[in-house]
Amino acid sequence: MKNLKYTLLLLAVLVMGLAGCADNSDFRDIRNEALTSLTRGGFIQFEDVNQRLLLGGADPNTAVFRANIEDPNNNATSFVVNIATSTDTIQYTEITSFPSELVIEGAQIRTLLGRDLRLGESIQFFNTVTIESGETFTPEPLDISTDANGVTTVNGGNSRFELFQAGNTGLRQAMSFSLLVYCPELIAEQYAGTYVVTGIRSRAHFDTDQIITAVAGPGEDQVTLQGLLPARAGWTGTMDLILTFEDDGRVRFDQTGGFVAGSFGDVTFTQSSLRQLTFQCLNFRTEFRGVMRVSAGSFGFGSTFIEKQ
Description:
Elements: E1 7-8, H1 12-17, H2 25-36, E2 38-39, E3 45-46, E4 54-56, E5 64-70, E6 76-84, E7 89-95, E8 100-105, H3 106-113, E9 122-126, E10 128-131, E11 136-137, E12 142-146, E13 152-156, E14 176-182, E15 193-201, E16 211-216, E17 222-228, E18 239-245, E19 251-257, E20 268-271, E21 278-279, E22 285-294, E23 297-308
Parallel strand pairs: 4-14
Antiparallel strand pairs: 1-2, 3-5, 5-8, 6-7, 6-9, 6-10, 9-14, 10-11, 12-13, 15-16, 15-23, 16-17, 17-18, 18-19, 20-22, 21-22, 22-23
């Protein structure tokens, strides 16, 4: 059964009523009125809840992304797909029948942006849906708040924020998303060789001057970084990281061996939940991001970037 997606219809009279001040006791009434004035709004989602948002190929400027989309509320008349930049939104295409196939071409993005696409970048999309009544809905969530002076306001868009939460595994919304421009393939055994550290972000967890040796295995889609040295003075030992490559350009790692942080004891390197990437077609550039932990606490997150010599 398709889930119904509910969005908010804010009446003009409600907005006018919020123009003045109200004491804190008004917040509950205003909030309840807003949240109970719900209507079935406009919402488009990908048919596949596991849809991978990737634009990949030997040349990203000629790559093509394809995905099936649907209108779960059966009331959409138009779905406008927009590229979002730091300063503007640029219409890419409009779809007027559902279900449909969404096709995004690197060549058209290149034309609209006026530049080549770069491997590793994310192309942002911020889209709108118009329904049969003529109302338009965006990914901007509704926000109801009251300040210290007791003034309650309704801000933002006309959609409930739950629809756009990353942890909502029951749907795959297509209202706002980004396409990652990535390399066409990953061959783990070709990662064997020597690497240098080319950069860090936030904190240096590993010695930035070391030469890192990578060997294929132990698994088919894995490579092991051997003998990593710590960046912190007083720490001893070496650490191996087994990198496992996914087929969408992501990498995850598992620690073997480890550092000893003096009197703090053994160190565990825990992977970040954020996406970590590897680009074979860009000199095997790889990121591994995580936090160093001991029993007494952590030393904070940091990213290390390496490239093949």
